[in-house]
Design a protein that fits this description.
Blueprint (H helix, E strand, L loop, with lengths): L12 H25 L4 H29 L2 H4 L9 H29 L10 H31 L1
Helix pairs in contact: 1-2, 1-5, 2-4, 4-5
């Protein structure tokens, strides 16, 4: 296991990396929504979403492998909240962390099947928009709940 790089944290490198990565994901996701809703740039939206989806898939796989091999509890046991809030915040976070990739997968696969390589609005657009809103809200909740867990477990 590699030590983390954030000086205020007891977390591992991978936990620090994911916490920082989620700080980047939220504004990129928000910008991608803006470019499709306001700027109507469907092609750029597709490229950004595919890049985000692939990046998050790789990050989640690497994160899960690291957690399964190295664990995290030994790094969190010093937290003042280990016996009170760490586990409830983790379970709350897992609700979103598990549902987010499922929703994103549904949205991305649906878009790949129903939009042309150069995407334009079509009969699937309304359904895609509804599903994508839920997926985006889920991602925001994943990020926020993940940061809460991270702070409770590895900072405080």
């Amino acid at each position: 296991m590699f030590d983390g790089f954030l000086p205020f944290s007891r977390a591992s490198f991978m936990l620090d990396f994911v916490a920082i990565a989620m700080i980047a994901v939220v504004p990129v996701l928000s910008w991608s929504i803006y470019i499709v809703k306001v700027k109507r740039n469907f092609q750029l939206h597709r490229k950004v979403q595919m890049a985000l989806g692939c990046t998050l898939l790789v990050a989640v796989v690497l994160f899960e492998v690291d957690i399964r091999i190295n664990g995290w509890r030994h790094l969190a046991v010093e937290s003042a909240f280990y016996d009170s809030l760490v586990y409830p915040s983790l379970y709350f976070h897992l609700v979103f962390a598990i549902s987010t990739p499922v929703l994103w997968g549904i949205v991305i696969i649906g878009a790949l099947k129903r939009f042309a390589r150069s995407p334009q609005p079509n009969e699937y657009s309304h359904r895609h928009g509804k599903l994508a809103r839920w997926a985006a809200l889920d991602m925001y909740a994943t990020a926020l709940s993940g940061w809460i867990f991270y702070v409770l477990a590895f900072v405080l």
